[in-house]
Amino acid sequence: xxxxxxxxxxxxxxxxxxxxxxxxxxxxxxxxxxxxxxxxxxxxxxxxxxxxxxxxxxxxxxxxxxxxxxxxxxxxxxxxxxxxxxxxxxxxxxxxxxxxxxxxxxxxxxxxxxxxxxxxxxxxxxxxxxxxxxxxxxxxxxxxxxxxxxxxxxxxxxx
Length: 159
Description:
Layout: H1 34-42, H2 50-54, H3 65-71, E1 74-77, E2 87-93, E3 98-99, E4 104-105, E5 111-117, E6 120-125, E7 130-135, H4 136-140, E8 149-154
Antiparallel strand pairs: 1-8, 2-5, 2-8, 3-4, 5-6, 6-7
């Protein structure tokens, strides 16, 4: 993560399929692209990337949720997020998969990430194969309990 993320870029991806934004060809609709979208939209390249996966020639974007979580400047329970934090990453998973003291998240298949900005969540819907915008309450139902614990993450000193 070399530069501050461009939070306003995320809405430009609405209704787009991964084929519309990944020039490296990591576009199989059977893959989970939530972290992949977030990383392309915000310019994040940590851990394993689409470029590494495909041998692509373009800038690589992260593809793993738990690696995005670990790279955050600050993480915490969503309920502990300060109201003044208007832009951040929002993660959803079973609370037992998250270890705040070590800033790690288990690599469990039931985890998801989106961009929280202007009071809504923009994320890649793997069931609709496109980027969508939802209210936080809609996003909270992405997984049923107990896999619907919400967490925030700040990037590059934001927050």
